[in-house]
């Protein structure tokens, strides 16, 4: 696989991100508004951190060797995504564009480091 192919593959990936995430985000916003009360950005930010904390606690239990059901991890991961979607929608963040831009910066940094013989 050549360096150019990787660039083309990255471009395709970023195009997909910038198209699909906003579509999901829009549908999710409509669902949220129809079924739940309006909440503030502060509320969803706190909710996001709480849900991420619950997921982290399950990971800590796994790390300690406890048996945690995959379904419990999936449930908490879903809660994190839901809270992130709600936060982004309330704050007017186009998550697809934000993720695309962040991935572009990461990709650029990785390429620069690779040219220097360093790792990301």
Explained architecture:
The chain is mainly alpha-helical and 120 residues long. The protein has a single domain (3-115), classed as Helix Hairpins (Orthogonal Bundle). The chain has four helices and no strands. Helix 1 (3-35) crosses helix 3, helix 1 runs antiparallel to helix 4 (95-115) and helix 2 (41-63) packs antiparallel against helix 3. The longest helix has 33 residues, at 3-35. It is globular, with a radius of gyration of 18 Å. 10% of the residues are buried.
Relevant terms:
120 residues, mainly alpha, Helix Hairpins, 4 helices, 82% helix, 0% strand
Number of helices: 4
The general outline is globular
CATH architecture verdict: Orthogonal Bundle
- CATH class, anyone? Mainly Alpha
Strand content: under 5%
Q: What is the end-to-end distance?
A: 20 Å
> What Rg, in angstroms, do the CA atoms define?
18 Å
Question: Considering DSSP H and I runs of 4 or more, what fraction of the residues is helical?
Answer: over 70%
Summed up:
This protein has 120 residues and is mainly α. It is built from four helices and no strands.
Give the helices and strands, then pairings:
Elements: H1 3-35, H2 41-63, H3 70-90, H4 95-115
């Amino acid at each position: 696989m050549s360096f150019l192919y990787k660039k083309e593959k990255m471009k395709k990936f970023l195009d997909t991100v910038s198209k699909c995430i906003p579509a999901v985000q829009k549908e999710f916003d409509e669902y949220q508004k129809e079924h739940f009360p309006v909440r503030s950005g502060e509320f969803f930010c706190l909710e996001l951190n709480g849900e991420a904390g619950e997921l982290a606690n399950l990971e800590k239990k796994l790390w300690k060797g406890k048996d945690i059901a995959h379904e419990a991890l999936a449930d908490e991961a879903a809660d994190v995504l839901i809270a992130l979607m709600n936060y982004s929608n309330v704050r007017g963040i186009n998550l697809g564009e934000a993720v695309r831009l962040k991935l572009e910066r990461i990709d650029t940094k990785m390429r620069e480091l690779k040219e220097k013989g360093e790792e990301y």
